[in-house]
Amino acid sequence: MICQTSKQGIECFFMAKKGCTYNGGTCYAVIENCTGCERIVEYPTGKYCSSYPQPELKWNAGICNFASHVKVEVAKDDKKVNALKASKRKAAGKM
Which of 5, 9, 41, 49 has the fewest CB within 10 Å, making it most exposed? Predict the structure, then answer.
């Protein structure tokens, strides 16, 4: 249904005939951590996330999984491999 609260005129999953069914009856504005994200959409009532109705909850546990402006560093495993054991595994078909 079409949102009648914070994102007026936009199709919303949480809208029902009785109004917004999301926690508190409305979507919540983005927080400071969201600054720079591509998913921020500005409406007359404020700036909101286009992917999640309460961005603050996504940042409570760490980095928001929808954040397009945050790059996650992946640790490279510099584990040394014994060439003799690796060739034996490959010959045995275990790789």
Answer: 9
